[in-house]
Design a protein that fits this description.
Blueprint: E1 2-5, E2 8-11, E3 16-17, H1 18-24, E4 32-36, E5 39-41, E6 50-51, E7 56-61
Length: 66
Amino acid sequence: MKITLNGEIKELDGEVTLDRLLELFSLPSQRVAVELNKEVVRKKDWESVMVKHEDRVEIVHFVGGG
């Protein structure tokens, strides 16, 4: 199946949860926000929300500074 991850087309073997998607692409799970099809998904829901064919996922990293 194909998804769009941060603007790039990616191939997956099948549907996965958001938290598994982060693992598959070695993305950090701390200090990030995840948007699925233009809707922000709360971190507590990542393990139950499935990513499906042609979904659009945006992952934004927060950085601190001062």
